[in-house]
Design brief:
single chain, alpha+beta, 2 domains, four-stranded antiparallel β-sheet, 11 helices, transmembrane
Length: 336
């Protein structure tokens, strides 16, 4: 109580200095508002010091974290067409430079692995043919068959995806026309295939958002004629949640300001009746700015603070101003 009395005495003695100091403090803290971030990660719900969080963090560090799924849905029956895989390959190339990506798995990566093995097989075959030339007489038919096979699949003799649809289908399907088991993880059915982009464990939300935005930008600029492409996964959902949180806060603040102006104008019968609104806005700006300066993100839990802050702040501001007006009126009446 003594501290409050002393503080009141200082404010009474130096009113202009107190006002200027308050404005300066609001401006300084308000600048930090531009650093505020929305957070939806596990650490917003579970303590970083908990065993569960640390074990999960270690697991993600060793085997990668959350994944983004880029799903290709064919409009016709040519899902595994060369042009579709080339589109997927270009997207993969766009993402290779990102440091926070742990791995990318897609039909493209699997086909390229098979091409590498085929290339090695053909190299071994060429060596065998070279050695067999010394025994031309007895091996002409065998050499002819191998040369025919190499000619038919010549587009796998170079790195990258096959250029011929027939070669691609021979790699993806077995002799009975069934999808090879190697592709079952990324080819869901005859109309759906996907690219799985796994983030590094502990990748920041900002980096995930940038990569998701990069994927969406690429897909907007590079349409696929024979397929519809959409992006999903927890990082995509979290990004949408953060955007929704930001939008909701903006709407909440605007609606609060509008309703408070209306209510104060109609109900609060004193001079400077809108002043409490300015006080509470200054408090909100200062709070958000301070959170930005000390790197405290806004989470789904901490968002609940702002309605309480607005409610209590406007309540005390109205009471303070009302009491001040009463004292001023009483003093004026006494002087008369």
């Amino acid at each position: 109580m003594k501290i409050l009395i002393k503080l009141a005495g200082i404010l009474e003695k130096y009113p202009m200095k107190a006002i200027l100091l308050s404005i300066a403090a609001i401006i300084v803290t308000g600048v930090g508002a531009q650093n505020i971030e929305m957070a939806t990660g596990n650490d917003t719900l579970v303590s970083r010091e908990s065993r569960v969080y640390q074990e999960n963090e270690q697991l993600e560090k060793e085997f990668g974290g959350e994944s983004v799924i880029v799903m290709y849905e064919a409009r016709r029956d040519n899902l595994l067409a060369v042009q579709n895989l080339n589109h997927m390959k270009r997207l993969e190339n766009e993402l290779l430079a990102e440091n926070d990506i742990y791995s990318i798995l897609s039909p493209v990566t699997l086909v390229e692995q098979m091409v590498d093995k085929k290339f090695q097989t053909y190299q071994d075959g060429i060596k065998e043919i070279s050695g067999s030339l010394e025994k031309v007489g007895g091996n002409l038919s065998s050499i002819s068959r191998k040369l025919d096979l190499m000619s038919a699949n010549a587009d796998v003799l170079q790195p990258g995806l096959p250029e011929k649809q027939e070669t691609l289908e021979n790699m993806v399907y077995d002799d009975e026309g069934q999808l090879r088991s190697l592709f079952e993880e990324v080819v869901v059915d005859e109309r759906h295939m996907m690219m799985i982009i796994k983030f590094e464990g502990g990748a920041p939300d900002s980096s995930k958002s940038e990569i998701v935005e990069k994927i969406n930008s690429f897909l907007d600029e590079n349409k696929v004629e024979s397929a519809d492409v959409f992006v999903s996964g927890k990082p995509v959902l979290d990004d949408a949640i953060r955007a929704s949180m930001k939008e909701s806060m903006q709407k909440m603040m605007m609606l609060s300001v509008v309703f408070m102006i209306i209510i104060l104008s109609l109900v609060f019968k004193v001079g400077w009746r809108i002043l409490p609104l300015g006080i509470i806005l200054a408090a909100v700006i200062g709070t958000v700015g301070l959170m930005g300066w000390i790197s405290i993100p806004i989470t789904m839990v901490s968002m609940a603070v702002f309605p309480i802050l607005i409610g209590l702040g406007i309540d005390y501001a109205i009471q303070f101003q009302s009491r001040y007006s009463e004292e001023m009126s009483a003093e004026e009446a006494q002087n008369e």
